[in-house]
Amino acid sequence: MKFSYLTKLGTASAALVMASAMASGAIAQDTSDWPDSVTVGTASQGGTYFIYGAGWADLVQEELDIRTSSEATGGPVQNMALVNAGDLEFGMTTMGPGYDSWIGENEIAPGVEMRDVRALFPMYQTPFQIIALADSGIDSVDDLDGATVGVGPRGGTPGTYFPRFFEQLGIDIEPQYGGASDLGSQLQDGLIDAFAFGAGIPIAAFSEVAAQRDVNIFSFNDEQIQTLLDENPSLAPFTVPGDTYDAIQEDQDTVAMWNFAIANKEIPKSLGYEIMKVVLDNNDRMMEVHKSAKETLPKHYDKNSFMYFHPGAVQYFREKGYEIDEDLIPPEMK
């Protein structure tokens, strides 16, 4: 057993804690092949990945007694590259960038099919929305033609897809890349005209701006949504509830992508399995991390249609009664 808070307890107390953990199955696995520490790749500060990733990393450390940290990254595109290379043990990705990376179209490493990444658990959907200051008069996508628009960091989902979306819709924008919090500040300072982002809702950076200024938060109209769905198979329709932000009084239709936690293929099966249990069997704890975790449920396993599942994830889903498509079983299990 690695050093942990148990060493701070008396022998009898520690024994009771150990017995309780063994009874719950939390440490019933052989941990001899587990790494001493692991890191979860997230995204920029001000986005949901940063909060959500740090949350499940802390929960894993607390429940499994393995040193777990989170690292701010450029987001899903970079996470796929880092996890594939083994520079990070874990990460998170939206399935659009995940698929692009899987087939060798990751902009960080063009031509490299990132097949050493394994899917773990479904996280939540990432809806795409845009925020502008109310006094700018910008309250629709059409108003963005000719504007300077923050789109998140390079390598992140919004930074990758919003410029593509605007091009598909015939909207000419000047993209401004950066972290979510930084772009929120630039919007307030008048350095950019609008901020287009995608993250689990509520988006922290949007809430921060809306708490200080009057804002318009908007998305695509019905015709634009249909165009984007036709052009991007990884998208799905999504409705942002009207009570998500004070600036939105009614439900707002947009498009979204699913997110999954990912692992390098070398992560031991037992560790992957225990992480699945910690996150998916403790949804109430995850909801305390971020409201978007209401979708972090085993039943959404089928939102992954292309990436090999980690062996630990396969074991977990099968125990829950879900059938994993043969094409998603990793080679190491065959």
Automatic annotation (TrEMBL):
Gene3D superfamilies noted in UniProt: Periplasmic binding protein-like II
SUPFAM superfamilies xrefs: Periplasmic binding protein-like II
UniProtKB keywords: Signal
This protein's record includes keyword Signal: yes
Signal peptide as annotated in the record: 1-28
Pfam families: NMT1_3
Superkingdom per UniProt: Bacteria
NCBIfam families per the UniProt record, alphabetical: TRAP_TAXI
Name of the protein described by the UniProt record: TAXI family TRAP transporter solute-binding subunit
Organism per entry: Fodinicurvata halophila
